[in-house]
Design goal:
The complex is a heterodimer of chains A (about 110) and B (about 110).
Chain A (H helix, E strand, L loop, with lengths): L2 E3 L3 E5 L4 E8 L3 E9 L6 E6 L3 E5 L2 E6 L4 E6 L8 E9 L7 E3 L3 E6 L1
Parallel strand pairs in A: 2-11
Antiparallel strand pairs in A: 1-3, 3-8, 4-5, 4-9, 6-7, 7-8, 9-10, 9-11
Chain B lengths: L2 E5 L2 E4 L5 E8 L5 E7 L5 E9 L2 E4 L5 E7 L2 E6 L8 E8 L6 E2 L3 E5 L1
Parallel strand pairs in B: 2-11
Antiparallel strand pairs in B: 1-3, 3-8, 4-5, 4-9, 5-6, 7-8, 9-10, 9-11
The chains are: A mainly beta (about 110), B mainly beta (about 110).
Chain lengths: ~110, ~110
C-alpha cells in the first residue's frame, strides 16, 4: 500500500520562509503533488513534481528526490493568508485513473 | 473554462436515512471523476473513481455507492447512513494533467 508522512503542525512568522516535508512509501511512483486547504474550504492544487529537482511557482516551490522518497514544499515571504493545511499526495500505479493518495496534512500557523 | 459544482453544501441526516450527493462538471468532456471523504482534521480518503459513463471503481468497501449516469455527472449514494459516514465529501475531476480540481464540498453530519 501507499503511505505518506508529513508533520501535523508547523508554526512560522509572517515574512519568513517555511519548509513542509513529506516522505512517502509507494510502488510504481509517478509524481508528488501539493494541495492547500483553508479551514472549511476545498483543497486547491499548488504543484506537481514528477522528476527530481525544484519547481518554482511564485512564492511557492516544491522539491522532489525520488531516490530518497522525499519531497518538500517551500513557502517564502509568508503572509497571514498562507495559514492553511497543506497536503502532499502521490500519484502511483495503485491509485487507478490518476487517483491520488493523500497525506494527513500539515497545519501551518502563521504568527505576526 | 471548466467548473465543478457540488451540492448541497451542508446536510444533516438521521441514522438509517438515505443519501444522495451530486456533482457536475462543466466545460470539459470525458473527465476522470472522484469522490473523496475527509474526516475532521484528517487527510482525504479516496472512495470512488470513474473514467467514464457507468464505470465505477471503489477504493474502500463501505455502505456507500456511486454512479455516473452522464459524462459530467457523478453521484454518491447510500441506502442507510451510519454515524461513521459523517464527514466532508469532496468531488474532484482531472483530465490527467496531474492537478485535481475539487468541488466546494458537502459537510455531512449523521445524527
Amino acid at each position: 500500500g501507499q503511505s505518506l508522512e508529513q508533520p501535523s503542525e508547523v508554526t512560522a512568522v509572517e515574512g519568513a520562509i517555511v519548509q513542509i516535508n513529506c516522505t512517502y512509501q509507494t510502488s510504481g511512483f509517478y509524481g508528488l503533488s501539493w494541495y492547500q486547504q483553508h479551514d472549511g474550504g476545498a483543497p486547491t492544487f499548488l504543484s506537481y513534481n514528477a522528476l527530481d529537482g525544484l519547481e518554482e511557482t511564485g512564492r511557492f516551490s516544491s522539491f522532489l528526490s525520488r531516490s530518497d522518497s522525499y519531497g518538500y514544499l517551500l513557502l517564502q515571504e509568508l503572509q497571514m493568508k498562507d495559514s492553511a493545511s497543506y497536503f502532499c499526495a502521490v500519484r502511483d500505479s495503485g491509485g487507478g485513473a490518476d487517483g491520488l493518495t493523500f497525506g494527513k496534512g500539515t497545519h501551518l500557523i502563521i504568527q505576526p | 473554462s471548466q467548473t465543478i459544482h457540488q451540492w448541497p453544501a451542508t446536510l444533516v441526516q438521521p441514522v438509517g436515512s438515505p443519501l444522495s450527493l451530486e456533482c457536475t462538471v462543466e466545460g470539459t468532456s470525458n473527465p476522470n471523476l472522484y469522490w473523496y471523504r475527509q474526516a475532521a482534521g484528517r487527510g482525504l480518503q479516496l472512495l470512488f473513481y470513474s473514467v467514464g459513463i457507468g464505470q465505477i471503481s471503489s477504493e474502500v468497501p463501505q455502505n456507500l455507492s456511486a454512479s455516473r449516469p452522464q459524462d459530467r455527472q457523478f453521484i454518491l449514494s447510500s441506502k442507510k447512513l451510519l454515524l461513521s459516514d459523517s464527514g466532508f465529501y469532496l468531488c474532484a475531476w482531472t483530465q490527467g494533467n496531474y492537478g485535481y480540481t475539487f468541488g466546494s464540498g458537502t459537510r455531512l453530519t449523521v445524527v
